[in-house]
Amino acid sequence: MKKGLLIVVSAPSGCGKGTILGEILKEPNYYYSVSATTRQPREGEEDGVHYRFLQREQFEALIKDGAFIEHAEYCQNYYGTLQAPIEENRALGRNVILEIEVQGAMQIRKTCPDAVFIFIAPPSIETLRERLMNRGTETAEVIAERVAQAERETECAKDYDYVIINDVLETAISDFKAIVRAEECKTKNN
Amino acid sequence: MKKGLLIVVSAPSGCGKGTILGEILKEPNYYYSVSATTRQPREGEEDGVHYRFLQREQFEALIKDGAFIEHAEYCQNYYGTLQAPIEENRALGRNVILEIEVQGAMQIRKTCPDAVFIFIAPPSIETLRERLMNRGTETAEVIAERVAQAERETECAKDYDYVIINDVLETAISDFKAIVRAEECKTKNN
What we know:
Chain A is of the alpha/beta class.
């Protein structure tokens, strides 16, 4: 069986990443990688669906075992991506989607050199600001911070293999599918 | 304006390359690269359509000028690919399709490192043999030679960026389009 791809996706907040990935995951033969964390589950969060909730000692033992392809500590909680479920699913021919921020993606570049890196970008910073404002769910301050962060993250787009500009959603989705198909046609994956 | 791609395509005879490229060239913004040659035009061949017909002295002067991205001599005739029309069309944002055999493609690897290399392969050598036999236009001897050559050429598929297996024509065409779209999304082309 042909091994599935590992597709690492990053995008600034407000770029429509969730909508695009939601559409992609409707296709057969995809597996969405669930992060592990030591933080407490929030209301409605399910183990294995939203996160794999681990005890701190378990997480640290797994770090020692080299079980993570990336991990980091934020606010006294660990977050990380376990290699085993990714490799198991790839071996079954499934394409694994891994949603992660820029620093995590760059760690994976080193630990999984055969991964495919896709950055989803807004058509412009101005469009992103408008989208966030039209949502009407964030304060002006939060929007300003999100926009500033998006600008910094978009600087990193050059370190990805592909950039999808999410201007028209349908085009962005078909671009994503085209990238996956092209990667499947790559000589090294055949 | 975004520069067009240079797409180099090779395929053994009988792999459906002509049909696939015919469909691709129906799309807007493509330019089909016409080879130059010193051989005499055959009945019905038009200059600039089937070949650019050049005098031997012209061809040799152009070699000296470094005007070709690849050239070779067969049976006392020169054949080659001129760089200028390719670069002019790419500068206008057109994707250039260059159909060429394996040795020529490998020369272009060196002269145009930013080109995209696609190999179109039959699902199997047995299928290729059947297809050539069903055409009914070639003798058993010619078919045997074509099949042997296809086997040798398919060995070279690993030196291409992408391999499209032409099993179902519609899939092969959509694979080709996906590769082009993915290449357009590549960070280095953005």
